[in-house]
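For the sake of transparency, this paper describes our internal protein records without simplification. Such a record has a labelled line for the sequence and another for the backbone structure tokens. Nothing more is needed to write down the fold, since each code stands for a local backbone conformation. For reference, a complete record is included directly beneath this paragraph.
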Amino acid sequence: MYSKRFARPVIVTHHAAQRMAERAVSDALLLRLVDEGQTRYRDESHLWAWMDVPDREDNLVCAVLVLENAVIVKTLMHHWELLP
């Protein structure tokens, strides 16, 4: 996978791949989330990317990302809430 938004490859950790399988999130949906989702940065390289996916029964789907030489997907959550 390659992120156009961040202009670098996307690497999915083993943990994130397990969570994707548990939460029925495809590679295509993950890439859409990375490239089109809303973002909030914790610092220069750590961020959350999320989006509402209307055809899903859960609410926001969120990926925890680390920006290095690649976009590293650390985990994936659903039923997520953006806190202030």
Q: What stands out?
A: The radius of gyration is 12 Å. The first strand starts at residue 2 and ends at 3.
